[in-house]
Task: structure prediction
Amino acid sequence: MHRERTTGESSASLLSEALTRATSLFRKEIDLARAELDSSLQAAFLGIGLIVAAVVISLTALNVLSAALVAALVEAGLETGWASLAVGVAFAVIAAILAMMGARKLKSVTLGPQRVADNVKADVAMVRERVSD
Result:
């Protein structure tokens, strides 16, 4: 009877230790996920801010360059309306090409915590392996 108590106590302590380790592992994985997500979001927000600033400056430059191009075409003998249409169509084609290229690049970006997912998969595999032993 004394032996059953020891086995019961050791089973309880093993279970307690397993739960403590699982909880600790879970907390570490959550902390890693937060850190990874924070890092990704900070980089994304910085990139977005820089892109917005570039767009604002580019729009100003584009207006000036468009006016200069239309003026050059008018000086070359084209009527103002046709010169404006030609410049507008050229810029629209360039914008469409750039938008398609940007959309393709964005499809390959993942903001999810990939390292955490990989670690969790490895942890689950390790637990399964130890349980089956």
User: Anything to note?
Assistant: Residues 93 and 99 are 10 Å apart (CA to CA). The mean pLDDT is 85.
